[in-house]
Amino acid sequence: MKAIVIDQYGDKDVLQEREVDQPSIQENQVLLEIHATSINPIDWKVRAGYLTDMLPFEFPIILGWDAAGIIVEKGSNVTNFEVGERVFTRPATTRQGTYAEYAPVDENLLAKMPASMSFEEAAAIPLAGLTAWQCLVDFAGVKKDDKVLIHAGAGGVGTFAIQIAKSLGAYVTTTASEENEEFVKSLGADQVINYKTEDFSQILHDYDFVLDSMGGEVQSNSYKVLKPKGKLVSIAAPPNEEEAQKYEVEAGFLWLDPKGEQLQKLADLYEAGKLKAVIGETFDFNEKSLQAAHALSETHHARGKIVIKVK
User: Fold this and answer.
1) Cβ partners under 8 Å of residue 184, min gap 6
2) How many domains would you assign to the chain?
3) pTM, full prediction
């Protein structure tokens, strides 16, 4: 099968196209024929060697941890999915990722695609959508009328977080550039802070929850907008415990735990018209396109998700 692999850590040019063996599956897995995948920051962070302590993979490595496609084979213990079904997934974080024509996926990480959902839409949802869900629902327990601040609302996680927070009945504020103001409002944002010209920490007060995807100074200033006993979760950098205690805030760092049943809840929101996948750019499945897609993701200015059409 065709795959894009890396044999060493480095810049985007280490992404190389080649033929590799089609993977075999275990009894609790399916073999997924991948029709689309997407780019996430974890992809180029692994590629650059930033996550070697956390993910000590052996080379060669196939990156990519989002996929949508069709089941072409299933293990003997797989009971809830059938060959021929259209599914999407955030597969386990292994060295056998989704920049490939086929990938093995554990049954408990699969969700069934709604009939109206395209493979490109489905591939855009899992990692970013599940991250947003786990921040808002699992960590924060966001409920009706909560005031929520979502940083970088036009980004991959941000676009899903705005929509999920609105589906929970929250009042949603987000930071974005002037060019993206109408876009994030179209997703449901009630208030937009122009991060280039306005200081959110001087404008907002008594918020229940902040989703931090930036780290650094943005994270530190985010404590100022929270009410005592408010919550902050970061997907960028572990919060400083002393800072959190100073502001009497519950703060944590979230590393995604993939779950098929939660992905199915996102599929339900999609079917109910409460969630859409925002695809900023679509690339073909080849070496040069993947290199260009990585370069775009590394700018931190991609709108929505970057999707790769595999089939």
Assistant:
1) 153, 154, 158, 159, 162, 174, 176, 192
2) 2
3) 0.96
